[in-house]
Write a structure and sequence with these properties.
It is globular and about 80 Å long. Helix 5 crosses helix 9, helix 5 crosses helix 10 and helix 10 crosses helix 11. Strands 5, 6, 7, 8, 9, 10, 11, 14 and 17 form a 9-stranded antiparallel β-sheet that branches. A 5-stranded mixed β-sheet has the order 19-20-21-23-22, sandwiched between helices. It has a 4-stranded mixed β-sheet with strand order 1-2-3-18, with helices on both faces. By secondary structure, it is α+β, with helices and mostly antiparallel strands. The protein contains 14 helices and 23 strands. Strand 12 and strand 13 form a beta hairpin.
Length: 504
C-alpha cells in the first residue's frame, strides 16, 4: 500500500496528532504485529526459536557464552541464572527475518515500514500508575545488584553491564524526550557509569550540566521488540522515539510517568531503573567489549545515581550480547532506513542500502543504484558520508547486484571497479570513536573527546558504465532460471540404483 512520505523535519506541516488515521491504515495492511515482549517470546518458543537453559548458569561469562553459541539460531532464556529469581533472556531479535516478522511484514518491506513509522510518528498515551505493569513492584533506595541479575559479558569487561537498557531523558530546554541504548557499568548498589557518545542524550546532559543540574533519566529493560527497534531510529534532536514505536505498533504506545521524575516510560516494559546523571561527577568506566569486536578504553565517564527500581510481577531481564547479531541488527536496520531516505531525497534512483554485518552494522555501507550518469556514484558516496559520521566505507553497485549478499557485492568490486579510477579517499574526517583504528598514534594516553574518532573515508564505485560495447558488462544468466518451479521437476522419493544400470 503506497503511503505519503512527508518531510520529518517539518513538524509544523506534519503534526503527529494528525497521524492516527494513517497509522490505523498501516496497522490494518500488515499481518500480526508483535507489540508485547512476552507474547513475542511465546511465539519464538512455539516455533522452536527459544532455548530454555538449565538453572544455574553463572552471570559472570557463562550465561553470555551460552547465549552467544545460540546467537542467530535461538533466543536463550535462563529461568534461574546463578540462583537469581529474575530470569534473563537474550537474542530474541537476532535475525533480520525475525525483526520483519515482529513488525508483521515481509523482509523486503522492513526498511519501508520502519521509514513510514519514523516519518509518521504516533503520540504515546499516558496511563495511570495503577494501569502500568512496569510499576507493579516498587523498590525505594534499592541495591541494583541484588534486585537484578546483571551479567558480566566479555573476558576483560570491568564488571557487570546493563547492555539492553533504553535510556530515556527529557531535553532540559524543551522538555521533549530522547530514547537511546547506552552501555551502563554497575559500580555499586546505587551508582553506575554510562558511556554517552556525542548525540542527543549527551547534548541533554551538557545542557543540564550548564545549568548546574542533574539530568533525570529512566533506564528501561525488557521492552517489546518494536519499541526496542524504534529506540535506535536516527532522527533530529527533540524527536521522541517512543512515538515511532507507536507507529510501528499501529496504535499509541502506552506510557507511564516515573515515580521520582517526569520521564515517561513504556508502561508494559518489564523493568525501569529511575535515576539521575549527576552534574560534574565522573568515575572510571571500562574496558568493555563493544560492537566493533574490540574493547573500548577505560576512561572517566558520567555517573548515574539510582533513585528507584520498578518492575512487573515476576519480571524478565534482557541482556544483549555485545557485537553479536541482536546488537548489530538493532543498530543497523533503523540506520539503513534513515540512510535510504536521506540518499533518495537527492538521488531517487537509489534503490536499496545495506550496512554489512562484516562492517559491524555501522561502518560499511552498500548502495544499490540505477545509474543514469557517469560520476553519479561518487556523488552518492559523498552524500552517504555526510549522512552519518560512523560510515567509513561506501560501495555503490548497480541494480542487478543484491546488496544484502556480500558475495555479490564483492563480485561487483572484482569486475566493475578500478582503484585508480573509481576510488574516493577522504582523510581526517569525523568517524566512530569506538573504531580502534582511529586511535593509532595516540600512545598510552587517551585523546581529548574532540580529537577522538578522526578517520579516513573510502568510497568504491563498483558500477558498470552507462553504455558499453555489446555484452561486455551483461551479467550471465540462463533463461528460465528465475521462473522454473524446481519442486515440480524433482521426483520426490525416487532413487536410482546405479549399480544395476546396464554396462556399455
Amino acid at each position: 500500500m503506497p503511503l505519503p512520505s512527508p518531510d520529518p523535519n517539518n513538524r509544523a506541516a506534519n503534526p503527529v496528532h494528525d497521524n492516527v488515521e494513517l497509522n490505523i491504515m498501516i496497522s490494518e495492511a500488515r499481518k500480526t504485529v508483535h507489540t508485547d515482549l512476552r507474547g513475542w517470546l511465546s511465539h519464538l518458543s512455539t516455533t522452536d526459536r527459544l532455548a530454555v537453559i538449565k538453572p544455574g548458569a553463572a552471570l559472570e561469562h557463562e550465561l553470555v557464552a551460552i547465549a552467544k553459541l545460540l546467537d542467530g539460531r535461538q533466543a536463550a532464556y535462563f529461568p534461574q541464572p546463578d540462583g537469581h529469581s529474575v530470569p534473563v533472556v537474550s537474542g530474541f531479535m537476532a535475525r533480520r527475518s525475525w525483526i520483519a516478522e515482529a513488525m508483521g511484514v515481509a523482509e523486503s518491506e522492513l526498511l519501508a515500514t520502519f521509514r513510514e513509522a519514523a516519518e509518521q510518528p504516533l503520540p504515546s498515551q499516558l496511563v495511570p500508575q495503577a494501569e502500568a505493569p512496569c510499576q507493579q513492584v516498587v523498590h525505594r533506595q534499592p541495591d541494583v545488584r541484588a534486585v537484578l541479575p546483571i551479567p558480566t559479558h566479555s573476558e576483560h569487561d570491568n564488571g557487570p553491564y546493563i547492555t539492553a537498557g533504553m535510556v530515556i531523558a527529557r531535553n532540559p530546554a524543551t522538555g521533549v524526550q530522547n530514547v537511546s541504548i547506552n552501555r551502563i557499568q554497575v559500580h555499586g548498589k546505587d551508582r553506575m557509569a554510562i558511556l554517552m557518545l556525542p548525540r542527543h542524550l549527551y547534548a541533554f546532559y551538557k545542557e543540564a550540566e550548564r545549568r548546574g543540574e542533574d539530568l533525570p533519566i529512566a533506564i528501561v529493560i525488557g521492552a517489546d521488540p518494536l519499541t526496542l527497534l524504534a529506540s535506535q531510529a536516527i532522527t533530529q534532536i527533540d524527536y521522541d522515539e517512543l512515538d515511532i514505536a507507536g507507529a510501528l505498533h499501529g496504535s499509541p504506545l502506552r506510557v507511564a510517568q516515573c515515580l521520582t521524575n517526569d520521564v515517561h516510560v513504556p508502561a508494559d516494559a518489564e523493568i525501569v531503573i529511575e535515576g539521575r546523571i549527576l552534574c560534574d561527577e565522573r568515575e572510571m568506566e571500562g574496558p568493555f567489549g563493544e560492537f566493533p569486536r574490540y574493547y573500548s578504553a577505560r576512561e572517566q565517564r558520567e555517573v548515574i545515581a539510582v533513585d528507584a527500581i520498578t518492575h512487573r510481577q515476576a519480571p524478565i531481564f534482557h541482556t544483549i550480547v555485545p557485537a553479536e547479531m541482536e546488537h548489530l541488527l538493532l543498530g543497523s536496520i533503523p540506520r539503513e532506513a534513515t540512510l535510504l531516505a536521506h540518499l533518495q531525497r537527492s538521488f531517487p534512483n537509489v534503490l536499496d542500502v545495506h550496512l554489512s554485518i562484516g562492517g559491524v552494522g555501522r561502518y560499511h555501507l552498500y548502495v544499490k543504484l540505477r545509474k543514469t550518469h557517469e560520476g553519479q556514484p561518487k556523488n552518492v558516496i559523498l552524500c552517504a558520508f555526510g549522512a552519518h559520521y560512523d560510515i567509513k566505507q561506501v560501495i555503490v553497485v548497480d541494480e542487478d547486484v543484491e546488496v544484502h549478499d556480500p558475495q555479490q557485492v564483492e563480485w561487483a568490486v572484482a569486475t566493475r571497479f578500478q582503484a585508480d579510477r573509481d576510488m574516493v579517499v577522504i582523510s581526517g574526517a569525523q568517524g566512530s570513536a569506538l573504531d580502534p583504528s582511529t586511535t593509532l598514534g595516540a600512545g598510552d594516553g587517551v585523546a581529548p573527546v574532540h580529537e577522538q574518532g578522526v578517520s579516513a573515508k573510502l568510497g568504491l564505485d563498483a558500477t558498470r558504465p552507462v553504455t558499453y560495447h555489446e555484452h561486455t558488462f551483461t551479467r550471465v544468466r540462463v533463461p528460465g532460471e528465475d521462473s522454473i518451479d524446481l519442486a515440480a521437476w524433482i521426483e520426490s522419493g525416487r532413487r536410482v540404483d546405479f549399480n544395476s544400470l546396464a554396462q556399455s
